[in-house]
Amino acid sequence: MLFSCKKKGCDIPEEIARIPVQVEMERLEKPFFEASSKQEIAQFLDRHPMFAERFLQRKGYPSDSALVNAMYALATNPELKKLADEAGQAFGDMAKEKQQLETAFKFIKHHYPDFKEPQVKTFVSGLNQDLLVSDSLLVFGLDFFIGKDASYRPDTYEYILARYERPNMVPAAMLLLSNRFNKTNFLDRNLLAEMVNTGKAYYFVKSIMPCTPDSTIIGFSGQQLADVSHNEGRIWAHFVEKSLLFEKSPFVVNKYIGERPNTPEIDPTSPGRLGTWVGWQIVRKYMERNPKVTLPELMADNDYQKIFNESKYKPEKR
């Protein structure tokens, strides 16, 4: 019997579905915006010391009273309260996110039995921080992910804004979580190494969230993903013909890995971060050709050259 996500190719094996995980999602924005005095804010901070330390950066304030004053100003700001109400309406009880996290944590525990699921909190910080992921704490800044109808949206470029949507929230957090397992060689930073490193990260997210579309994991639109898949051979030919794979110049590497609205060197209509997508395809090919390699073995392997060679990645140019 399979615990199914009702989508082709994402049935969850019974042995994984049975793994016990505890996801308690604490909605901190509610008590925070109900506070009506500095004393109540101080009590809120005392009740959530790890959250105050990591998400609110308690140490960055000259004194606790400075932090209390700053937080009191936020909690009583009518515009911010409005944003918190919008987040409450948009997200409801967050049953969907809870389910996504439970499934992802089950898969992680299956591969890493010592994994301990972090505490999960939500907050509305006035577009101050979108996500915090550490070993013991995961915080979703809901105000970033309300979507197009929010009164206020993150102050960023349109192409990045497109990723600040509710379906992208949990995959984005899991991508950050993958850093804990993704071993990389910091001494050898060429384009191919960066491609494979980011490819491993996306592969990790897809492995623990098999029901999530590739487009949501990488933050492309469905159309962009269809286009790059169709032109995979052409895209790869660009890297090979221009001898870019072992390029170490951060400026060049960033053209294909970093945030950009598009990659005009390949095609003005192609999305940015194209190198990361190609890296994902290389890692996929490697894992298809090496079915005995486990997810932890892949993530611990920092020999990008070996992964590339053994992937025998060579898409046909159409």
SSE layout:
Blueprint: H1 14-17, E1 25-27, H2 29-34, H3 38-47, H4 49-54, H5 64-75, H6 78-91, H7 95-111, E2 119-123, E3 131-133, E4 137-141, H8 158-161, H9 169-178, H10 191-208, H11 214-218, H12 222-230, H13 232-241, H14 250-257, H15 274-289, H16 295-300, H17 304-311
Parallel strand pairs: 1-2, 2-4
Antiparallel strand pairs: 3-4
Helix pairs in contact: 3-5, 9-10, 10-15, 10-17, 15-17
Can you describe this structure?
The protein has 318 residues and is mostly helical. It folds into two domains: 14-165, no CATH class; 191-311, no CATH class. The chain is built from 17 helices and four strands. It has helices at residues 14-17, 29-34, 38-47, 49-54, 64-75, 78-91, 95-111, 158-161, 169-178, 191-208, 214-218, 222-230, 232-241, 250-257, 274-289, 295-300, 304-311, and strands spanning 25-27, 119-123, 131-133, 137-141. It has a four-stranded mixed β-sheet. The longest helix has 18 residues, at 191-208. The chain is globular, with a radius of gyration of 21 Å. The model is unreliable at 1-6 (pLDDT under 50).
Distance between the termini: 41 Å
Number of strands: 4
Describe the main β-sheet briefly.
4 strands, mixed
Shape: globular
* Number of helices, counting only DSSP H or I runs of 4 residues or more: 17
Mean pLDDT: 95
What is the gyration radius calculated from CA atoms?
A: 21 Å
Q: Which percent bin holds the helix content?
A: 40-55%
Q: Give the strand order, joined by hyphens, for the main sheet.
A: 1-2-4-3
Strand percentage lies at: 5-15%
Helices and strands: which structural class? mainly alpha
Low-confidence stretches: 1-6
Order of helices and strands: HEHHHHHHEEEHHHHHHHHHH
Tally of domains: 2
